[in-house]
Amino acid sequence: MDKLNILVTGGAGFIASHLVDALVERGHNVRILDSLVEQVHGGKVPEFLNAKAEFIHADVCDADAVSKALDGIEVVYHQAAEVGVGQSMYEIVKYVKTNDLGTAVLLEEMVKRPKQFKKLVVASSMSIYGEGAYRCEPCNENVNPFLRPSEQLEAHEWEFSCETCGSQLKTIGTSETKPLFPTSVYAVSKQDQEQYCLAVGRAYKIPTVAFRYFNVYGPRQALSNPYTGICAIFSSRLMNDQAPTIFEDGEQTRDFVNVKDIVRANLLAIDTDGGDYNSFNIGTGRATSVREIAELLASGLGKDIQSEIVGKYREGDIRHCVADISKARKMLGYEPSVTLEDGLAELLAWLATQEAEDKVEGATAELTSRALVK
Ligand code: UD1
């Protein structure tokens, strides 16, 4: 691939900063547009920001700044977003502004000069599915349930049962064709970002690819941001000698994908045209329980701290979701390369060099006061 001029929005963030490094490594000219959100960066330029990338400190909603940032650019990776699911349920304007309006601003600036762009790649999320896909073996039927009703959760019945025969449903890989049931403002805004980009891309013939990231982990996760995923939340608790709080019974599962594999997928989007105008799951296909993650992190950090399984639940939480990655395999040649064991070992090595301010209790209190944790 020739040397390209690439813009990465949100390039100072956890995932996008790794992407910037990989692009620079490949010899591309990389420009970052990032507003350095206070909750994530504490208003500072992160020390890991790649010095070989040009940095523009601006908000993605600032049309003038975005227009300047697009000058000479051939490929846009749109990774800028507010990312806290729970927080999106009360800071609604902030999430809609950054994620929806920010994408609108970017696209409106792009369509003023559509011929300039060879590719647009947008970061979407597994959260747009809501619950994952399930199967009832006795009925020989696949099922796509909506959220568990509150009466069921109040009774601490965490798993789904078949509405026909009553047996427990089995989790199966969630494919891109599963109906979308986004259940948080964040998730709705991610669906919007994905669909805006694909719609505009199709209309203006800007080849566009959307990646639905599963639960991403790795070095540079914002440890002091209590609204990010559990690898960061649990690590931050343990590093401060506090027990991780586990909702439900800890047996809920997710597909934890290493940030390196997310970067690989993003590179494939510019290496091949095979994925143009499509959305892809980027995960591993392996399900891991929340309890297992807490145990692996505690033992890796050498902390003899038992997690607290509190039996509470978070409003809008899903029970299981694991990626079916066959579409990305087939059309992009994507293959996850980092096992959870290796990935967590690398995360732990990085954690050893970090300090984490534990703000989890405050965040949980905030969610509880709004009846978003019960
Ligand atoms: C959500 C989003 C995902 C996003 C991620 C990080 C959905 C379906 N997915 O993932 O797109 O990338 O947030 O922002 O909305 N848990 C605990 N204790 C805690 C915190 C969480 O037990 O202190 C549990 C939750 O109840 C949940 C599981 O851990 O069952 C995973 O939570 P989390 O890491 O926040 O990710 P998701 O909700 O899967």
Please characterize this protein's 3D structure.
The protein is α/β, with parallel strands linked by helices and about 375 residues long. The protein folds into 2 domains: about 5-130 and about 175-365, Rossmann fold (3-Layer(aba) Sandwich); about 135-170, no CATH class. The protein has helices at about 15-25, 40, 65-70, 90-110, 150-155, 185-205, 230-240, 260-270, 290-300, 325-330, 340-350, 360-370; strands at about 5-10, 30-35, 55, 75-80, 120-125, 135, 140-145, 170, 210-215, 215, 245, 255, 255-260, 280, 290, 310, 320. The model has no long low-confidence stretch (mean pLDDT about 95). Uridine-diphosphate-N-acetylglucosamine (UD1) binds near residues 125 and 233.
What's a concise summary of this model?
The chain has 374 residues and is α/β, with parallel strands linked by helices.
Order of helices and strands: EHEHEHEHEEEHEHEEHEEEHEEHEEHHH
Sheet bearing the most strands, described? Answer: 7 strands, parallel
Give the overall form. Answer: globular
Low-confidence runs: none
CATH superfamily of the largest domain: NAD(P)-binding Rossmann-like Domain
Give the ligands present. uridine-diphosphate-N-acetylglucosamine
How do the strands of the widest beta sheet line up side by side?
Answer: 3-2-1-4-5-9-14
Helix content: 25-40%
Query: What is the count of distinct domains?
Result: 2
Give the C-alpha Rg.
20 Å
In whole angstroms, how far apart are the ends? 51 Å
User: What portion of the residues fall into strands of 2 or more residues?
Assistant: 15-25%
Question: How many individual β-strands?
Answer: 17
